[in-house]
Structure formats: structure tokens, C-alpha cells
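Re: your question from the hallway

Yes, I did run it. Sequences:
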Amino acid sequence: MLEIKNLTKIYDDGTRALTDISFEVEEAEFLVIIGLSGSGKSTLLRCINRLIDPTEGQIIWNGTDITRAEGAELRKIRRQIGMIFQHFNLVKRSSVLTNVLSGRLGYVNPLRSLLYRFPEKDRKLATDALKRVGILDQAHKRADELSGGQQQRVGIARAFMQHPGLILADEPVASLDPVLAHSILGYLEQMNQEDGITVLCSLHYLDLVQRYASRVIGLRDGRIVYRGTREDIRRMTDEQFREIYGAEAVRVSAGFEAKGGE
Amino acid sequence: MAGNKKKKPETWSAGPGDADFRPLVPGPVAGIASLFVPGLGQMLAGQLRRGFLLLGSLGSGAGLLIWRIHLLAHREADLFAKLLKAFDRRPFFVGLVAACILLLWIWNAWDAYRQTKPKTRGGIGIFVLIVVIFFSLGWQISEINPYKMIKELPDAISPLSRVLWPWKVAVTREKQEISARAEILIGCEEGELPRIPEESPGKPYLMVEPRCGELSRLDEDNKVIKGTVVTLTGRGFVPDTVTQIWWIDSLSNKFRPRQEGQYVSVEIDKNGEFTFDLVMPYRLIPPSARGPQYHEVEARQVTGLGKLMVGDPLRLTLARMAETIFMGMMATFFGIIFAIPVSFLASRNLMSHSWVAMLIYYLTRTVLNVIRAIEPLIWALIAVVWVGLGPFAGIIALTFHSIAALGKLYSEAIESIDPGPIEAIQATGATRLQTIMYAVVPQMIPPFVSFSIYRWDINVRMSTIIGLVGGGGIGFLLVQYIRLLDYRAAGIAVWFIAITVAILDYASSEIRQRFV
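Structure:
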């Protein structure tokens, strides 16, 4: 359903973020991208929904080339692709409900939405989404009054409101503790398995990768250095892990294990 | 540090900044070069900026000194005579600056020599001298004179105290005229004596004795023959006041008689009574007059005994103060309305998606900067030419400045917002307008409110002085009072400006704290 061909991104300042990336994403996959900070994971995800314009290459989404899409066509593609962020990216001063409803912006009448008016049907959807992530009682609080884990659940509900075919999750648990990480990834797994939503997720912790990924791509310095299936990952050794992460890497399986290097 | 230097004298790193420095010329050459052109030696020693700084300050210092000497002794023809004359008039200033410049010249040569030696590179002693030179020049050029402040303080105390405590004119009483008359017969030969006025309680009463007499006359030599002395007795006047005496002739012409060159006035005692001996004044009896002539004498008081009233200065000040506050409010209001769309155009993060947008961004920024660079007072002058004197001109001036200032503040607030929500909303497939409404506006509200209230505060302050150039408001009144030397009235205006600004300052900071 998603095919990335020879994707390259060079930023205006000359930084080479991605070099010749090619891979395919199958329907209803849980594809995990691993790699160090700065290896190009965020750039890759943002190229897919064109928050960043790629320099070269193609991204084929259900037959259309996202890199060529503009205006209304691009917005139509974007609304089918939900996105979840490391820092949640909620509008802090708006209510939880408004944040969730904003997931429908690609569908509703643009003029009506400028007055913060949404159809009753969408309000119902928002309530259901909040119920699903278990924070319906927080709906009328301001987003910044919620804890980190709750905020990420709002982020998930917002993405779910788009009825997406694909969810891009950019290190969704990197700013949460390991227990919360499992709960958040649990919601993603549930959407993946029950609703058949494809998930493209970048992760840091190897044990989370081993637990949730159906397939793994490893990035290093903007190039794909590893491709593996769920079984490959389960058998992965520290040496292989270090190959992806580079010599200075540390196995951070749950974030608390012994340090390498020094 | 010093120990370090001694350990490795062969390295060139002792000087600040560059580690691998090589002077172009040996020390003495640098010194001599600086003696001819100040700073040249330093430049040759590789200290380019130091050289230019010395050249610039010595050159401009000497130039300014020559200018001041010329002003002090512009009549003298040749330079030396000018110098002597100027030294004669301002020995301390001319002596100090000339000596410092001379010293700086010599020091600069020595400094150039030292700059070639790694151990003695840098050093800021020489700049102290430059500061002394420019401080002295500044003192003289801006005519600073603390002695004058002390000397002229006694003269200033009286008007200043009126400004400081102006409340005497804040409240006045309604003026009330109290008067009483008594008739008098001119010449006692002919006609009946006038009646003695009746006394009625609560009203002033005047009696004249005798009830007839001769007016003052002139003899052939134009000498005054004094008329009859009559005794005036008055009762029922306001105690402890001064009363004017008026004379009314048979044709009802009123005038104030004089005695020994002064207008006649009497002092009322504490019981409201007086007695006074009045010489009947000089008055020509018209030749056509027939029959007995009756004149009247009147005692007249004008006292502030009526009911309490708000004085003119206070009344006008309050009216103008209201005008001022509303001027500031309206200007802020219009400023906000125009500044909001402008600020979106002037925000880099919202305008960086295409080169057309970037062009608009740069254009808006430039226009805002130009408008902001022109003071509201100057805008007011322009607006007065445009729409005439009055508050509307002031509002136009303040609005212009507010748009520019708020536009800049708002756009900086927009630029500093968290980009995360913007990309999140964009990722949902929202349009640009939706993104602004959902991701930008909620983040903007606190800084917008804060800046807007702050601007209102500034605008009211500005509108207090924008009247100085005819822009309406209290400044308009203040400048009139000051020009009329009515320091009490001006004092009231100053007090109200201070009170209003203080209240506003407090209120605006309170509101901003609560909101943000």
C-alpha cells in the first residue's frame, strides 16, 4: 500500500538526512524503524506525509505519488495518514475534546470549522475515541493539565479520528517511562490488529521493538542498514544491534541495563 | 597568568585573541608611525581595530576641541589667539582636554611600540584617557551646569511649589456681589437732604454723614481744592475682608474715587462693620444740570462666598483626562484590529512556504520598521496637518505607531510559538486557515492579550503628551497652562496625568499577570 523509492532528503543547509531509501509497507503491518537520534527516522516519517518535502525519490500511496501531490489532493492524502509525535504536539491551551476533534479537520466544512463548530456525528466519534483510550472523563480539561501518558493518548485519539489507513508514530514513547510505553504501544497494536491500520513507528528500545514489531528497518546516517522480520529481531544479538546503532551504541533494552562504552 | 607567560616567552599567544600573531614592523618603527598618524603603528603591529579606534577617537576628539575653541573665541583671527582666548574663558575645560589629547598622542606612540611585543600586547589603560576626553567634551558641548541648578533654585521654588501643590484652584466658590448705597446731596444750599437709608437685617447697610457736601474742585491754577470730608459707616458686610468704595454721579456714571493716588478701599472689621472718612471726589457738574444734584456712594464687595464649585482647571482637566484615556483606548483598539492581520504577514514561520510569501514578509517587516522608527509625536504633527487639531489627529498618530509596534510584537510572539501543534494539525489534512485557527491562535491568545494591554498603557501615556503638538488630550491643556504661566492649573493637569498613569500601570500589570 505504501512504496518508497530511492528517497533522498538534503536540507537547505546541506545536511544529508536521507540517502536512497527504498522499502515497501504491506497492508496492516507494524513496521518499526530503529536507529540513533539523527539517523533520519523523523525525516523519513515526515517525508511520507509531506511535512517535509523530499529532495528526490517517490512515495507511492495506493497508486498516487505523494511527492507530486499539491493542495487539496495532498490534504486528502494527509487525512488518511494519522501521525503521533514524541512530544505529543497537542494544542496545550485547547481542551482535550478540541484536540481530538481537530483530527476531523480534513473532513469537515472548512468555514464552519473556523468557528470551532463540528457536526454532531464527529462529536460522537470524538467521544468514542476518547472512550477507547480511556480518558473520556478528561474531555473538557485543558490539554496541558494532563499527564504525559494521558497526553499521548489524546494524540492517539486525534490520529484515530482521521480514520487513517496508516499511522506514522515518531518515537511515540521516547518521552514516557517504560510502563506507560507499553500502554501506549498497546493502543497502537490494538488499532493495528483490530482495525487493520498499518503502523509505521520509530522506536528506541530494543525490547519494545522485539515485542511489537512485525518487521524492522534499521537506519544509520540516513541509509537503510538493516531489514529484518519479527523472527530476525527476536534472535538479534548485541553485535547485530551495535552494527545498526554504531560502535558507541548502548543496549538500552529497558533503559536501565548496564552501560557499554566506558 | 604572569607565571605562565614567563614560562613560555617564545610563544606568541600571550596577546589576547590571535595565537599566531606577527607584527609587520619592529617596535620603534611602529612607535614612530603612530607619532605621525595615530593608530598606524598599532595597525602595523597587527592590531587593526585598536589602531582604527585610536585614530578615530584622537581625530574626532581633536576636531571637536577645535570646534569648541572656535565657538569660545570666534572673533579672534588666528588659531593661536583663539586658543589663548578660549583658554582664558574656560581654562579648566580647554586645558584638560588639550592636555589629554596631547598625552593620548604620546601614549599612543608608546602603545604602538608595546603592541609589537607579545608580553605587553593589549592593555586598556589608554582607553581610560579616551573616556576622559569624551566625557569632558560632552560636559562642555551639552552645557551641563550644576551650579546653575543650585543658584536658580530659590527663584524656581515658588512656581514649582504651585505645580506640586495646586489644589488651591481646584475648588472655588461662586462669586457673590454685596453692595450698599447711600445718597448724598451736592451743595448744601439747595434741595432737600436725602433720606437716611433704612436698615434691614441680613443686608449690608451704608450711611453717609453729613448727607450733603461739596465735591473736590480745581482752582484757576489747577490746584485741587478738597471737597467735604464725609464719614461712611457700614454694617452687615462680610467680616475681615476688603471692600471697594465707588462713586455714582447723577448721570449714573460709576467710578472709583482715589485718595492719595490709591483707589479707595476699606477694611471690614470682625463684626462686619466699618467707618471711613472719604474726601468727596472731583467731578464736573455738567453745565446743563438743573436743580439739586444727588450723587451716590457705594460700598461693594465681591466675595467667594457662594456655594462650592469645581474650579475651571479641575473641570477642564477631568474632561481632557477622559478624552486622553479614550484616545489611548481607541488608538489601541484600531491598532489591534490592523496589527493582527499584519502580524501574520510579518511572521517568518507562517510566511516561509513560498518566495511570494517571503517577499510579503520582508515588505511588511520593512514598512513596520519604518513606521515604528518615526515617533508618535511626529506622526501627530503629520496628522494635525491632515485632519486638523484635536483628539482625532492624536488617535491617528497613536494608531499608526500601535500598528507597527503591535505588529512587531505579535509577529515575534507568533514566531516563538511551538511548531509542534502546527505540524500535528497540518498532518490531519487541515487547510492553512484551519491550521492557523487551531494551532496558532490558541497559542497566541496570552501574548496577544498581554501585549495589547501593555500597548493601551503606553498609548494613554503617549496621549498625555501628544497634545503638546496639537493632538488633543490633556497635553493640549497642559501646554496652554504652562505658556500662560498658570502653574497651579498646570499642576492639576500634571497631578492627574501622574495619577492616571499610576493607576493604569498597576491595573495593566495586574491584568497581564492574571491572564498569562
